[in-house]
Amino acid sequence: MDRDRKISVMLVDDQKIMLEGLETLISVRSEMEIVESAQSGEEAIERLRSVVPDVILMDIRMPGMGGVKATQTIKELYPRVIIIILTTFDDDAYIIEALSHGASGYLLKDIDGEKLIQSIYEALSGNLLLTGKVAHKLALNIRNNNKGIEKKVAELDLTPRELDLVRLLVQGYNSREIADTLFLTQGTVKNYLSDIYAKIGTNDRAKAVLLLKKYLSP
Q: How far apart (Å, rounded) are the C-alpha atoms in residues 102 and 109?
């Protein structure tokens, strides 16, 4: 980014007092400028037709289109725009959805002003931003999800034929090679694999292989 050019920022929040506070915080920074503000996702997308900022500070819950959907839509239309979620809500679903749709960070509104400014620089540098509380909740969610899957694997009740397929699968055999080895059609192999994945609770082959290796371990 050109260091001689100011960092342009758009604010999206339905609370006027929040908009005013952010405007005050950013307006005193000589290297930053607020180019637009909006109070809903729809309004933000409309404003982007006239000006595309470097960074958007986005609230989650707003009348009409919320922050998650707005993030998804904006990243599809303007993939280079950096979007940082700034909200009071630390729900796991919001965090995961916002990040999966391209948000560069998820910060809570109680963040210190200087830390928020620093976060904008960090996001522009390509770093993913999470406040301590949000990072902890995200890590806990992932850990609990993995535990749930591993429990399913430990309790698998595989048929002898499914076990034959699993042994070949973890050795790196593809569907055709499994079919040739076990004298089955590829369609039959795919059906078996679908049943096995369903028992585990994942459709990701690489993840399934890792979990099935644990199942086969003595």
A: 20
Residue carrying structure tokens 């916002």: 98
pLDDT in tens, 95-121: 778 887 888 888 888 888 898 999 899
Distance of alpha carbon 183 from alpha carbon 141, whole angstroms: 42
Q: Hey, what CATH topology would domain 7-138 get?
A: Rossmann fold (3.40.50)
Topology of domain 156-216 in CATH is Arc Repressor Mutant, subunit A (1.10.10)
User: Considering Cα of 116, then 117, then 118, then 121, what sign does the dihedral take?
Assistant: positive
Sign of the dihedral defined by the CA atoms of residues 61, 66, 70, 71, in that order: positive
Q: Rounded to 5 degrees, what are φ and ψ at 7?
A: -80, 120
Whole-prediction pTM value?
0.61
Phi-psi region of 193 (alpha: psi -120 to 50; beta: other; left: phi over 0): alpha
